[in-house]
Here is the input.
Amino acid sequence: MEIDPKTGLPIEAIAWEDLAKSEQKIKVSTETRRYGKKITVVSGFDNCIDIKATAKALKEELACGGTVKDGVVELQGDHLKKVKAVLVKIGFAEESISD
Here is the structure.
């Protein structure tokens, strides 16, 4: 039986992340960086969410590079139209994601 390091409870008994995902207020936007390069910024995550795992899933689905800085996921390229569908697929509530 695996134990969750955050709570000390068995992982099977915890649905915290699923509950936390449904209560997020996520904002998706684009920014233009140097030399006209566009990035997609996904922000609004609480501390309950594993941001690195979310960023990894986004990067795999969108076939792009990216990083996590200060609790914000930055994806290379303009993925504004695709990010919402991927976040819903991961388990976030569709009505909690705004463009």
Observations:
- The mean pLDDT is 84.
- Residues 4 and 92 are 21 Å apart (CA to CA).
- The chain has one domain: 11-93.
- The first helix runs from residue 16 to 22.
